[in-house]
Design a protein that fits this description.
Blueprint: E1 15-19, H1 48-60, E2 65-69, H2 79-87, H3 106-110, E3 117-122, H4 131-137, E4 141-145, H5 151-158, H6 163-175, E5 182-187, H7 196-206, E6 209-214, H8 232-242, E7 245-247, E8 257-262, E9 269-273, E10 286-289, E11 294-296, E12 305-306, H9 307-312, H10 317-329, H11 349-352
Parallel strand pairs: 1-2, 1-10, 2-3, 3-4, 4-5, 5-6, 6-9
Antiparallel strand pairs: 7-8, 8-9, 10-11, 11-12
Helix pairs in contact: 1-2
The structure holds S-adenosylmethionine.
């Protein structure tokens, strides 16, 4: 059997998103406006050792990118210690940590580590004091959420008065060389669609990769309205009018964003992620692991797959691999946001891991 994760639609999984916690200290209206739903019991949350073991198995099955997320991943205590573990999967095989049950397995020894990219998505609130340590632990880069450049609007959108802290976090990430730094902004009509050009200017002046994300129906309050979605087309047009843009690559590959450079060769990059108006499920290479050890095959899955219990039942590596392969095979062909019968995901983006 091939040693790769392929679904029933012939898509290969290369990208694992691992949620480290279901807790978050921001109250973004498009995600967790009313705070977290009841938190998972502490003993159901995966330990660092369990996360490390799962990452190692996924990498052995062809995953090349791991993104640590949440909830707010920096709320997890000693996250630097966790980062050190998957970071080992990037270094030459002498340091590759093969679980003890595999130590005498010649096939396991010959496996080559293939992790290429270890990233973390954060709201940035405690990054200033942790950026250097995260880099030292082996983190390659960060994505920082920033929904407004205006103090009042930032508070309106995120529920917290922390714009200055997030701007400082971006500087700290740069100083720690957590590059390329991406900045995520969810664009919502009536909230921050008037800031598109300001964001583009911010990207140019600070040499950052802005990522504009269409608002998806993943908010825990289920208040998403189609009229609030600002389409990729509109985002592009508004920026292009002031700062002409040029597509970087003719193909998006399995990336989520169409990437643009500025025609005047300025620094910075614009990326537009359009899951609602330009669905890209056909090229999806992603799979998600929740903080309590459930595999989600799609952000909009209504079914989760309990990897934690398999892991804790004393299953062998082969059994765990079989389980993961079987789950991947069930990955949904696409999301159904635009269908009349659309049903919201079982849990909010914050729990699934954005
Ligand atoms: N706490 C971290 C943060 O704020 O970046 C990581 C988790 S957060 C769920 C990950 C990303 O999901 C953020 O960039 C956030 O803006 C995005 N997100 C959350 N809800 C969304 C929604 N309804 N539509 C589009 N993006 C969303």
């Amino acid at each position: 059997m091939e040693n790769i994760l392929r679904d029933a639609h012939n898509r290969i999984i290369r990208d694992l998103r691992v949620s480290l916690t279901d807790r978050c200290n921001f109250r973004c209206f498009y995600c967790l406006p009313n705070g977290e739903p009841p938190l998972a019991r502490k003993d159901t949350i995966l330990t660092f050792e369990e996360i490390a073991r799962i990452c190692e198995i996924f990498v052995s099955l062809g995953v090349e990118k791991i993104r640590l997320t949440g909830g707010e991943p920096l709320l997890r205590r000693d996250v630097e210690k966790l980062v050190e573990k998957p970071a080992l999967l990037k270094v030459p095989s002498s340091k590759f940590q093969v679980p003890s049950e595999e130590e005498n397995n010649p096939k396991a020894e010959s496996r080559k580590p293939k992790l290429i990219d270890l990233a973390l998505t954060t709201n940035g609130f405690s990054l200033v004091k942790r950026a250097k340590e995260l880099k030292r632990a082996g983190l390659d880069r960060v994505t920082i959420s920033l929904d407004s450049l205006k103090k009042d609007n930032f508070k309106r959108m995120t529920g917290v008065d922390k714009l200055e802290e997030v701007l400082e976090a971006i500087k700290a990430a740069k100083n720690a060389d957590l590059n390329p730094i991406k900045i995520n902004a969810v664009i919502v009509r009536g909230y921050n669609d008037d800031e598109l050009v300001d964001f583009a200017r911010f990207a140019r002046e600070n040499d950052l990769a802005m990522r504009f994300i269409e608002y998806m129906p993943l908010d825990s309050a289920h208040e998403w309205k189609r009229e609030q979605v600002v389409s990729a087309k509109e985002i592009f047009a508004k920026i292009n009018e002031v700062f002409p843009l040029e597509l970087k690559d003719a193909s998006r590959g399995n990336e989520t964003a169409w990437k643009y450079k500025f025609k005047d060769a300025s620094k910075g990059e614009i990326g537009i992620i359009a899951p609602v108006t330009e669905m890209f499920c056909g090229a999806c290479s992603r799979i998600r692991l929740t903080a309590d050890g459930q595999i989600c095959t799609c952000l909009f899955s209504v079914k989760e797959h309990n990897l934690r219990d398999i892991l804790r039942s004393g299953a062998t590596r082969a059994e765990i691999v079989d389980f993961i392969k079987d789950v991947v095979f069930q990955k949904e062909p696409r999301h159904y946001i635009n269908d009349a019968k659309f049903a919201p995901a079982s849990r909010s983006m914050s729990f699934i891991g954005g």
